[in-house]
Amino acid sequence: MDEKILTMKKLLDTSHFTIAITGAGISVPAGIMGFAGMNFPVVMQMTSMTVLKRTPEHYYKMARKAFLGPMFENGPTLAHRKLAELGKQGLIQGIITTNIDCLHTLAGSRNVAEIQGSFGVNKCLSCGKHCDDVQIWNQGKCPRCPDCGGLMAAFPVYEHIGLLDREVEKARSWAAYADVALIIGAEGSYGQVYYPYLRRGTKIVQINPKNTQFDNMAMLNIRATADEVLETL
Ligand SMILES: [Zn+2]
Protein backbone atom coordinates (compact mmCIF):
# COMPACT_ATOMS: atom_id res chain seq x y z
CA MET A 1 0.00 0.00 0.00
CA ASP A 2 2.86 2.41 0.82
CA GLU A 3 4.10 2.50 -2.74
CA LYS A 4 0.60 3.20 -4.05
CA ILE A 5 0.21 6.04 -1.58
CA LEU A 6 3.50 7.54 -2.75
CA THR A 7 2.28 7.37 -6.34
CA MET A 8 -0.96 9.08 -5.30
CA LYS A 9 0.97 11.86 -3.53
CA LYS A 10 3.06 12.44 -6.64
CA LEU A 11 -0.08 12.69 -8.74
CA LEU A 12 -1.60 15.20 -6.32
CA ASP A 13 1.55 17.31 -6.35
CA THR A 14 1.81 17.48 -10.14
CA SER A 15 -1.90 17.79 -10.98
CA HIS A 16 -3.29 21.21 -11.90
CA PHE A 17 -6.90 20.30 -11.17
CA THR A 18 -7.84 17.50 -8.83
CA ILE A 19 -11.33 16.46 -7.86
CA ALA A 20 -12.51 14.04 -5.21
CA ILE A 21 -15.62 11.97 -5.86
CA THR A 22 -17.05 10.58 -2.66
CA GLY A 23 -19.77 8.07 -1.83
CA ALA A 24 -21.32 6.42 1.19
CA GLY A 25 -18.06 4.69 2.21
CA ILE A 26 -16.42 7.90 3.40
CA SER A 27 -19.20 8.54 5.95
CA VAL A 28 -19.37 5.04 7.46
CA PRO A 29 -16.97 5.86 10.35
CA ALA A 30 -19.36 8.67 11.39
CA GLY A 31 -22.13 6.07 11.72
CA ILE A 32 -24.00 6.79 8.49
CA MET A 33 -25.14 3.83 6.44
CA GLY A 34 -26.33 5.76 3.39
CA PHE A 35 -29.52 4.86 1.59
CA ALA A 36 -27.87 1.81 0.04
CA GLY A 37 -27.26 0.27 3.45
CA MET A 38 -30.71 1.01 4.85
CA ASN A 39 -33.65 -1.27 4.54
CA PHE A 40 -36.36 -0.26 2.13
CA PRO A 41 -39.06 0.80 4.66
CA VAL A 42 -36.58 3.16 6.36
CA VAL A 43 -35.60 4.75 3.04
CA MET A 44 -39.29 5.16 2.17
CA GLN A 45 -40.01 6.88 5.48
CA MET A 46 -36.87 9.02 5.44
CA THR A 47 -37.83 10.43 2.06
CA SER A 48 -41.57 10.67 2.66
CA MET A 49 -43.18 14.06 2.77
CA THR A 50 -46.29 12.42 4.28
CA VAL A 51 -44.35 10.99 7.22
CA LEU A 52 -42.68 14.37 7.81
CA LYS A 53 -46.01 16.26 7.66
CA ARG A 54 -48.10 13.83 9.72
CA THR A 55 -45.56 12.89 12.37
CA PRO A 56 -42.66 15.37 12.48
CA GLU A 57 -41.49 14.00 15.86
CA HIS A 58 -41.25 10.50 14.43
CA TYR A 59 -39.51 11.82 11.34
CA TYR A 60 -36.99 13.71 13.43
CA LYS A 61 -36.21 10.62 15.55
CA MET A 62 -35.58 8.58 12.43
CA ALA A 63 -33.48 11.30 10.78
CA ARG A 64 -31.46 11.77 13.95
CA LYS A 65 -30.59 8.08 14.15
CA ALA A 66 -29.73 7.73 10.46
CA PHE A 67 -28.12 11.10 9.70
CA LEU A 68 -28.34 14.00 12.11
CA GLY A 69 -26.66 12.29 15.10
CA PRO A 70 -23.75 11.04 12.94
CA MET A 71 -23.49 14.47 11.26
CA PHE A 72 -23.51 16.76 14.28
CA GLU A 73 -22.31 14.44 17.06
CA ASN A 74 -19.89 11.96 15.41
CA GLY A 75 -18.74 13.62 12.22
CA PRO A 76 -16.98 14.81 10.17
CA THR A 77 -14.58 11.88 9.79
CA LEU A 78 -10.82 12.13 9.53
CA ALA A 79 -11.13 11.67 5.76
CA HIS A 80 -13.59 14.59 5.46
CA ARG A 81 -11.26 16.79 7.49
CA LYS A 82 -8.20 15.78 5.44
CA LEU A 83 -9.99 16.58 2.18
CA ALA A 84 -10.91 20.01 3.56
CA GLU A 85 -7.25 20.56 4.45
CA LEU A 86 -6.15 19.53 0.95
CA GLY A 87 -8.65 22.02 -0.44
CA LYS A 88 -7.17 24.83 1.65
CA GLN A 89 -3.68 23.86 0.47
CA GLY A 90 -4.85 24.14 -3.14
CA LEU A 91 -4.38 20.42 -3.78
CA ILE A 92 -8.07 19.67 -4.40
CA GLN A 93 -10.25 21.97 -6.49
CA GLY A 94 -13.65 20.36 -6.02
CA ILE A 95 -15.52 17.55 -4.30
CA ILE A 96 -18.40 15.76 -5.98
CA THR A 97 -20.54 13.71 -3.63
CA THR A 98 -23.68 11.61 -3.73
CA ASN A 99 -23.91 11.89 0.05
CA ILE A 100 -26.62 14.03 1.61
CA ASP A 101 -24.94 14.34 5.02
CA CYS A 102 -23.15 17.70 4.47
CA LEU A 103 -20.06 16.27 6.14
CA HIS A 104 -17.72 17.87 3.59
CA THR A 105 -19.20 21.29 4.28
CA LEU A 106 -19.21 20.67 8.04
CA ALA A 107 -15.51 19.75 7.75
CA GLY A 108 -14.80 23.12 6.11
CA SER A 109 -14.64 22.24 2.41
CA ARG A 110 -15.90 25.07 0.21
CA ASN A 111 -16.17 23.66 -3.30
CA VAL A 112 -18.62 20.80 -2.87
CA ALA A 113 -21.15 19.60 -5.44
CA GLU A 114 -23.89 17.68 -3.64
CA ILE A 115 -25.53 16.13 -6.68
CA GLN A 116 -28.42 14.55 -4.75
CA GLY A 117 -28.93 17.62 -2.58
CA SER A 118 -28.51 17.32 1.18
CA PHE A 119 -29.77 18.44 4.56
CA GLY A 120 -28.19 21.77 3.63
CA VAL A 121 -30.77 22.39 0.89
CA ASN A 122 -34.20 22.98 2.37
CA LYS A 123 -37.61 24.31 1.42
CA CYS A 124 -40.68 25.25 3.44
CA LEU A 125 -43.53 22.86 2.61
CA SER A 126 -46.10 25.64 3.16
CA CYS A 127 -44.75 28.82 1.54
CA GLY A 128 -41.79 27.48 -0.47
CA LYS A 129 -39.13 29.62 1.24
CA HIS A 130 -35.64 28.18 0.71
CA CYS A 131 -33.00 27.81 3.38
CA ASP A 132 -29.56 26.50 2.44
CA ASP A 133 -28.18 26.13 5.94
CA VAL A 134 -27.60 22.67 7.38
CA GLN A 135 -27.57 24.09 10.93
CA ILE A 136 -31.38 24.35 10.95
CA TRP A 137 -31.30 20.56 11.50
CA ASN A 138 -29.10 20.94 14.57
CA GLN A 139 -31.72 22.10 17.06
CA GLY A 140 -33.27 18.91 18.45
CA LYS A 141 -36.45 18.99 16.38
CA CYS A 142 -37.72 19.38 12.85
CA PRO A 143 -36.98 22.92 11.67
CA ARG A 144 -39.81 25.39 11.03
CA CYS A 145 -40.01 28.20 8.50
CA PRO A 146 -39.06 31.59 9.99
CA ASP A 147 -41.71 33.31 7.80
CA CYS A 148 -44.81 31.12 8.13
CA GLY A 149 -44.05 28.41 10.71
CA GLY A 150 -44.45 25.63 8.14
CA LEU A 151 -42.29 22.53 8.18
CA MET A 152 -38.95 22.71 6.37
CA ALA A 153 -38.04 19.67 4.28
CA ALA A 154 -34.60 18.73 2.95
CA PHE A 155 -34.06 18.25 -0.79
CA PRO A 156 -34.09 14.41 -0.77
CA VAL A 157 -37.55 14.62 0.82
CA TYR A 158 -39.19 17.35 -1.24
CA GLU A 159 -37.65 15.99 -4.45
CA HIS A 160 -37.93 12.27 -3.58
CA ILE A 161 -34.18 11.66 -3.99
CA GLY A 162 -33.85 13.49 -7.29
CA LEU A 163 -30.84 15.26 -8.73
CA LEU A 164 -30.07 18.87 -7.89
CA ASP A 165 -29.43 20.46 -11.29
CA ARG A 166 -27.21 23.33 -10.20
CA GLU A 167 -24.93 20.89 -8.34
CA VAL A 168 -24.88 18.45 -11.26
CA GLU A 169 -23.77 21.29 -13.56
CA LYS A 170 -20.98 22.17 -11.14
CA ALA A 171 -19.88 18.53 -10.93
CA ARG A 172 -19.78 18.20 -14.72
CA SER A 173 -17.75 21.35 -15.22
CA TRP A 174 -15.18 20.24 -12.63
CA ALA A 175 -15.02 16.75 -14.16
CA ALA A 176 -14.18 18.30 -17.54
CA TYR A 177 -11.07 19.97 -16.06
CA ALA A 178 -9.80 17.16 -13.86
CA ASP A 179 -6.23 15.91 -14.33
CA VAL A 180 -6.72 13.61 -11.37
CA ALA A 181 -9.89 12.19 -9.81
CA LEU A 182 -9.77 10.53 -6.42
CA ILE A 183 -12.77 8.22 -6.14
CA ILE A 184 -13.35 7.55 -2.47
CA GLY A 185 -15.87 5.12 -0.99
CA ALA A 186 -18.13 5.29 -4.03
CA GLU A 187 -19.51 2.04 -5.38
CA GLY A 188 -20.60 3.06 -8.84
CA SER A 189 -20.74 5.88 -11.31
CA TYR A 190 -24.22 6.84 -10.20
CA GLY A 191 -26.21 6.59 -13.41
CA GLN A 192 -23.47 8.29 -15.47
CA VAL A 193 -24.41 11.67 -14.01
CA TYR A 194 -20.86 12.98 -13.89
CA TYR A 195 -18.61 10.11 -14.99
CA PRO A 196 -18.83 10.59 -18.79
CA TYR A 197 -17.89 14.24 -18.28
CA LEU A 198 -14.40 13.40 -17.00
CA ARG A 199 -11.95 14.61 -19.61
CA ARG A 200 -9.94 12.07 -21.57
CA GLY A 201 -6.75 11.24 -19.80
CA THR A 202 -8.03 11.99 -16.30
CA LYS A 203 -5.99 9.80 -13.99
CA ILE A 204 -8.31 7.93 -11.66
CA VAL A 205 -7.19 6.86 -8.22
CA GLN A 206 -9.65 4.75 -6.30
CA ILE A 207 -9.65 4.41 -2.53
CA ASN A 208 -12.01 1.64 -1.45
CA PRO A 209 -11.60 -1.61 0.49
CA LYS A 210 -14.28 -3.19 -1.72
CA ASN A 211 -14.45 -4.02 -5.40
CA THR A 212 -16.51 -1.53 -7.39
CA GLN A 213 -17.54 -0.51 -10.88
CA PHE A 214 -14.47 1.75 -11.01
CA ASP A 215 -11.88 -1.03 -10.61
CA ASN A 216 -11.08 -1.27 -14.31
CA MET A 217 -11.11 2.47 -14.92
CA ALA A 218 -8.66 3.33 -12.15
CA MET A 219 -4.92 3.51 -12.82
CA LEU A 220 -4.42 2.99 -9.11
CA ASN A 221 -6.64 0.96 -6.75
CA ILE A 222 -5.84 1.45 -3.09
CA ARG A 223 -7.67 -1.24 -1.13
CA ALA A 224 -8.17 0.49 2.19
CA THR A 225 -10.64 2.81 3.87
CA ALA A 226 -10.65 6.55 3.26
CA ASP A 227 -9.50 7.22 6.83
CA GLU A 228 -6.58 4.78 6.54
CA VAL A 229 -5.31 6.34 3.31
CA LEU A 230 -5.96 10.03 3.91
CA GLU A 231 -4.41 9.81 7.36
CA THR A 232 -1.05 9.38 5.64
CA LEU A 233 -1.29 12.70 3.75
ZN1 LIG B 1 -42.85 29.07 5.07
In short:
By secondary structure, this protein is α/β, with parallel strands linked by helices.
Topology of this structure?
Blueprint: H1 2-14, E1 18-22, H2 34-37, H3 40-46, H4 49-54, H5 56-74, H6 78-88, E2 94-97, H7 103-107, E3 112-114, E4 122-124, E5 130-131, E6 152-154, H8 155-158, H9 165-177, E7 180-184, E8 203-207, E9 220-222, H10 226-230
Parallel strand pairs: 1-2, 1-7, 2-3, 7-8, 8-9
Antiparallel strand pairs: 4-5, 4-6
Task: For this entry, give a set of tags.
binds zinc ion, alpha/beta, Rossmann fold, 233 residues, 10 helices, 9 strands, six-stranded parallel sheet
Structure description:
With 233 residues, this protein is α/β, with parallel strands linked by helices. The protein has a single domain, classed as Rossmann fold, CATH 3.40.50.1220. 37% of the residues lie in helices and 14% in strands. It has ten helices and nine strands. It has helices at 2-14, 34-37, 40-46, 49-54, 56-74, 78-88, 103-107, 155-158, 165-177, 226-230; strands at 18-22, 94-97, 112-114, 122-124, 130-131, 152-154, 180-184, 203-207, 220-222. The strands form two sheets. A six-stranded parallel sheet has the order 3-2-1-7-8-9, with helices on both faces. A three-stranded antiparallel sheet has the order 5-4-6. α7 (103-107) links the parallel β2 (94-97) and β3 (112-114). It starts with a helix and ends with a helix. The mean pLDDT is 94. The structure holds zinc ion. Zinc ion is lined by residues 124, 126-127, 129, 145, 147-148, 150.
